[in-house]
Amino acid sequence: MTDFRASAHTFLNTLIRAPESVLNDLAHEHLAPDCVWDVSHPINHLVGPDAVLDGFVRPLRAALTRVQRRDEIFIGGQNIREEGGEWVASVTHYLGNFDAPFLGIAPSYHLMLARSGEFYRIDDGLITKARIILDIPDMIRQTGINPFGASYGLETLFPGPATHDGVLPDSDQDMAGRSLDVVEGMLADLHNFDPTTFSSSNQTGASGYWHEDMLWYGPAGIGSNYLWDGFVRDHREPFLRAFPDRKGGDHYCRLGDSNYAAISGWPSMTMTFKGDYLDVKADGRALTLRVMDFYRCADGKIMENWVLLDYNDLMAQMGIDLIAKTQTLRGH
């Protein structure tokens, strides 16, 4: 493994805290002139270092006093999908006191831990592409208002891996391949499901892909859960009742690194809104979903899964502006 992971890790952690006087030079030194950053709604599409700074980095720095990154997972490897290339992927929190508005979200004046899933393509030492899902609904929730009214699972801070080795793990290419194989096998069998039990073949049991003590950490609205039964109850069943024809797997990136794997699609899923979901009435419209999954594997099983979904974008497609809804609930 080359050191492209460590270089990207250092740059991203420096970028969020560097003095304003060096910010432009730093960005232009590490970002390709025509870099493309796709960030969760409503930021969406940014092109070039200046747009990245003005559309994402500076607003986040302005909103969160003394902001810093706290990486829980930071891995990298060769993308096995058609796009190829060397990529890094991370689960992080942007930590700071939420003292100024962000994208129209009113500040709480308290500590904010804004979770984010991130993929970056590295070419000749420069970041040429980024995909970022910032869990904006969870940021709203942390200000004291649940934008969905309720959640299916436990709303909690994303924990780091139980093994505490998720940031720049020791390189083991054989293990990386095995980790990615387990995840790819699971995804292939996950497409088909029993409409009564909402289960799929080969997922659990002695020969299944998931460990019997699996942990699944989901975004705001879904929350986190424990064991396969908890995953089905808190996420899979409500999701499949709402979107029974969902088709996933349209991924631009899949990579493995030691006992970790990461996948993402932008969007990954296409589906029809056929059942009520998160207090929204189904209307039969076609929808897409941006997805990021991060996995920790051990002994041929998936132990932990961190999931970022751009639910702010999904709700916008349903005709709901979560940020405006929150402003109304606050009486603004």
What global shape is seen? globular
Determine the number of helices (DSSP H or I, runs of at least 4 residues): 8
The ordered string of helix (H) and strand (E) elements is: HHEEHEEEEHHEEHEEEEHH
**Share in β-strands:** 25-35%
Helicity, in percent?
25-40%
Summary keywords:
single chain, 332 residues, alpha+beta, six-stranded mixed β-sheet, 8 helices, 12 strands, 34% strand, globular
Describe how the helices and strands are arranged.
Blueprint (H helix, E strand, L loop, with lengths): L3 H12 L4 H11 E9 L4 E4 L1 H15 E15 L7 E13 L12 E13 L2 E9 L1 H7 L30 H18 L19 E8 L6 E3 H16 L10 E5 L2 E13 L13 E13 L2 E9 L1 H7 L4 H9 L2
Parallel strand pairs: 1-6, 7-12
Antiparallel strand pairs: 1-2, 3-4, 4-5, 5-6, 7-8, 9-10, 10-11, 11-12
Could you give a quick summary of the protein structure above?
With 332 residues, the protein is an alpha+beta fold. It is 29% helix and 34% strand.
Explain this structure.
The protein has 332 residues and is α+β, with helices and mostly antiparallel strands. The protein has two domains: 4-142, Nuclear Transport Factor 2, Chain: A, CATH 3.10.450; 173-330, Roll (Nuclear Transport Factor 2, Chain: A). Helix content is 29%, strand content 34%. The protein is built from eight helices and twelve strands. The strands form two sheets. Strands 2-1-6-5-4-3 form a six-stranded mixed sheet. The chain is globular, with a radius of gyration of 19 Å. The model has no long low-confidence stretch (mean pLDDT 95).
